[in-house]
Amino acid sequence: MLPEEIVLVGVAINLFYSIWYIRTIFRGGTRPNLISWSIWTIAPFLGFFFMIRAGAGLAATPIFMAGFGSLLVIIFSIFKRNAFWKIQRFDLVCGLLSLVALIVYVTSQNLPVSIFFALASDLLAFIPTFVKTWKFPETESSTTYFGGIVNNFLALLIIKNWTFSIYAFPLYLMLANLAEVYLIYRKKIFKRHKVDSISA
């Protein structure tokens, strides 16, 4: 088990990648989905609160940073015209379901149940971005998602008490960010594989 302070390295990396993601919004073609990023701001902050209640300690810091990084993306994107991806009806449905899950998460008196609905809320918020990235990977930058992978992986390495309420959120966030990175590079990976197959 690594010393708890190592998680601060992940926090710094995540903050750096969040700032770099914002830079790609201004200089590149990155266009975040407002529904996803709004929920990603709220849910991690609440998840941080519940993890602290469960005794997570510094292991909860990456969850706080997930919300803080998302908040920065929203704030700075406001200053760029047409920064956000156009919201579709599907996005609104996912956002509504995510908010319902978030309400259950906040009002539940059972901590593991609260964490489960926090995960459900965050995953439902991820779906519009997953769909957008599947169709238009050029509208996303992998930077902030790489930061999320590193940040939450380090959080898992310092956990002392492996209860669902403590490990569920960082494990989920690591896997969700991995999935998004795959979707961003999916076309390039398969295109390269196809070229290699033809060359062989």
Write a brief caption for the model.
This protein is an all-alpha fold and 200 residues long. It contains seven helices and no strands.
**Main β-sheet, in a few words?**
none
- Using only C-alpha atoms, the radius of gyration works out to 17 Å
- Indicate the percent of residues in helices: over 70%
Strand-pairing-aware structural class: mainly alpha
Arithmetic mean of pLDDT: 85
State the total count of DSSP E strands.
0
Tally of contiguous helical segments: 7
Give unreliable regions as ranges. Answer: none
Query: Helices and strands, in N-to-C order?
Result: HHHHHHH
Q: Beta-sheet strand percentage?
A: under 5%
Domain module tally: 1
Give the overall silhouette.
Answer: globular
Cα distance, first to last residue?
A: 45 Å
Overview of the structural elements:
There is one protein chain. The protein is mainly α and 200 residues long. The chain has one domain (4-199). The protein is built from seven helices and no strands. Helix 3 (61-77) packs antiparallel against helix 6 and helix 6 crosses helix 7. It is globular, with a radius of gyration of 17 Å. 42% of the residues are buried. The mean pLDDT is 85.
Short key terms for the protein model shown above:
single chain, 200 residues, mainly alpha, 7 helices, globular
Topology:
Blueprint: H1 7-27, H2 34-53, H3 61-77, H4 89-107, H5 111-135, H6 143-157, H7 164-199
Helix pairs in contact: 1-3, 1-6, 2-3, 2-4, 2-5, 3-6, 4-5, 5-7, 6-7
